[in-house]
Design a protein that fits this description.
The chain has 574 residues and is mainly α. It has helices at residues 22-33, 41-48, 52-80, 84-88, 96-125, 148-154, 162-171, 186-203, 207-233, 238-246, 256-270, 276-281, 290-323, 327-330, 336-346, 352-385, 387-391, 395-410, 419-429, 434-464, 470-495, 509-523, 525-541; strands at residues 145-146, 160-161, 501-502, 505-506. A two-stranded parallel sheet has the order 1-2. The chain is globular and about 80 Å long.
Length: 574
């Protein structure tokens, strides 16, 4: 049978997804930036670094560091509209930044769900007839356990609050050291499986479905925070906490640690340098107004943190008044603020189950949309760079399922009885610290010096038009202010390394080495790929001129050109 007259089957390239409306990116980006750190980490940093003085430093670094970095990352992704790796391919010698950011996002995707698992467990237990962290009648309680009512009269150094024992002895069931890993906590593993199933169902169709979900998970917690804040402000002693929160202790501004802490928090909270914003920007229309979005993200993040601070500190004031003590005595550091002090205070209110459920639902929703974006960014990078997965009908669904299973399994060590020690290492060395600031420094150097600021400004003008004053501000920021600040913080971190601690426990030296190797595992790609690129270029061309030339990008004639189907057919079928 002669089939020569038949035309070859068309090969259709799937269009790269894009936001359906101009507001989708802003909502998703704000949902990503506003996360758990706004509720438990920001108030903790304020408590540690001088209240109102910390707010000044935090806001200043938001303007000097974060906004310029967000403009850089969003515009870079929007300019190329081809994913993280291909965005940095335009500056060949700095392509390693993409791999460093990819590795860091993978580690964040492993660590961040642990916080959500804890939140989910507290949320479920909030519906108990008697809150387990409000009484001492449970199997995990010791003879030293006292309720928050008893603490008012009988507290001593030899006693533990019911909330503390619930957190340490039931939720974590903490061992004495990291060497004693203990067994897996079956309930935490179950909650982890539930969350990963939610992650998959909400993201398996890409930004088309996850964006609709984030509209809920990004806006509802903001309303809940307002409700909780209003209720907290009505508590007796709330003014004591607010005074501590808003009064600037100016002597703290003389300490370098305050400025480093403020910059670390504003970076950790808004999420630049991880690469997620580049991926999200790649889904934008070519002429999207990223200036508006960059400022909106920082402003929304600041006011969410600021409002959450009112809720937390007014509650701390209430606890201090109730126990006839000081705020320093009732406050705890780290996750304990969200999982010990705050639920303990809420247990004293009328209808405590309602307020506890509302609080932990808020934390869950804040964390979910941040995790959705981190996962979507990783999946998008894989789809952009693995053609066989991209062109297979169910390639994304299969690859995403396999990826999520692997990430879930990698997180299991943090659900053992010694898991809190592992989580502390990941928290210390992955999402914040010198590695994040190193990437931020390299981003500015790559764009402002190697690609060339003037050339990049021409690209920005093509996308959004000439913005009055924007050119001078960005030039000064990208070339000098932002990289100088981030580089100095890297130097500070590396010159003030202290023994790793979890509360009173000091980690063994090998655990600290593992932590530093975790940091290096992402950063090593930047100098490593740069060296590889230099060697390849010298071998191929004998000179390094090409390293300082980037791919010339032009404004597309049709911004929807990705939707054009590429057909492999003969001349008769054209």
């Amino acid at each position: 049978m002669d089939l020569s007259h038949r035309k070859p089957k068309a090969i259709v390239r799937k269009a790269r997804p894009k936001w359906q409306t101009s507001w989708d990116f802003m909502v998703v980006a704000i949902g990503y930036a506003v996360g758990l750190g706004n509720v438990w980490r920001f108030p903790q940093m304020c408590f540690k670094y001088g209240g109102g003085a910390f707010l000044v430093a935090y806001l200043l670094f938001g303007i000097l560091v974060v906004v310029p970095l967000l403009v850089l990352e969003i515009s870079l992704g929007q300019k190329s509209r081809s994913g993280l790796v291909k965005s940095w391919s335009e500056i060949p010698i700095f392509k390693g930044i993409a791999f460093a950011q990819f590795v860091m996002m993978l580690m964040m995707d492993t660590m961040y769900p642990v916080l959500l698992v804890w939140c989910l467990k507290f949320f479920v237990k909030s519906f108990s007839a008697e809150l387990p962290w409000a009484n001492c009648n449970n199997e995990w309680n010791t003879a030293a356990c006292i309720t928050v009512e008893q603490m008012k009269h009988n507290a001593s150094n030899g006693t533990n609050s019911a909330a503390t024992e619930y957190w340490k002895r039931e939720v974590l069931n903490l061992t004495s050291s990291i060497e004693e890993r203990g067994s897996l906590k079956s309930d935490l593993v179950m909650y982890s499986c539930i969350l990963w199933l939610i992650f998959y169902l909400c993201t398996f169709r890409g930004i088309k479905t996850s964006t609709k979900i984030v509209y809920v998970t990004a806006t509802l917690p903001l309303l809940l925070i307002v409700v909780i804040t209003v209720r907290s402000l009505t508590l007796e002693g709330a003014w004591m906490g607010l005074t501590y929160y808003l009064t600037p202790r100016l002597e703290k501004l003389m300490e370098v640690s305050t400025w480093v802490g403020a910059c670390s928090q504003v970076m950790f909270s808004n999420g630049p340098a991880l690469g997620s914003m580049i991926v999200l920007g790649g889904f934008n229309d070519y002429h999207h107004n990223f200036w508006r979005d960059a400022f909106a993200i920082v402003i929304a993040n600041f006011f969410t943190s600021f409002t959450a601070g009112f809720a937390v500190f007014s509650t701390l004031g209430y606890m201090a008044t109730y126990q006839n003590t000081t705020i320093h005595e009732v406050a705890t550091s780290g996750p304990g603020l969200a999982f010990v002090t705050y639920p303990e205070a809420l247990s004293l209110l009328p209808l405590p189950q309602l307020w506890c459920a509302m609080f932990f639902l808020t934390l869950l929703l804040l964390g979910l949309d941040s995790q959705f974006v981190l996962l979507e960014a990783v999946v998008a990078i894989i789809m952009d760079n693995v053609r066989s997965i991209r062109e297979h009908r169910y390639g994304r669904h299969i690859a995403q399922f396999v990826l999520f299973v692997i990430l879930m399994l990698l997180g299991l060590p943090m659900f053992t009885q010694g898991g809190a020690y592992v989580f502390e290492i990941m928290s210390r060395y992955v999402g914040s610290g010198w590695c994040l600031f190193t990437i931020a420094t390299c981003e500015c150097v790559a764009v402002a010096w190697f690609y060339g600021f003037e050339r990049y400004w021409e690209d920005i003008v093509k996308m959004t038009g000439d913005r009055w004053g924007g050119r001078i501000w960005l030039k000064v920021s990208w070339r000098f202010v932002t990289p100088t600040i981030t580089a100095l913080i890297v130097i500070y971190y590396l010159s003030t390394i202290e023994p790793l601690r979890y509360q009173d426990y000091i980690y063994p030296r090998w655990a600290e080495v593992v932590g530093h190797l975790i940091s290096i595992s992402s950063i090593i790609f930047i100098p490593g790929y740069a060296l590889l690129t230099v060697l390849r270029t010298l071998k191929k061309e004998g000179k390094l001129t090409k390293l300082f030339r980037s791919i010339k990008t032009e404004e597309p004639e049709n911004v929807d050109q990705e939707n054009v189907q590429l057909k492999n057919c003969d001349s008769d079928s054209v």
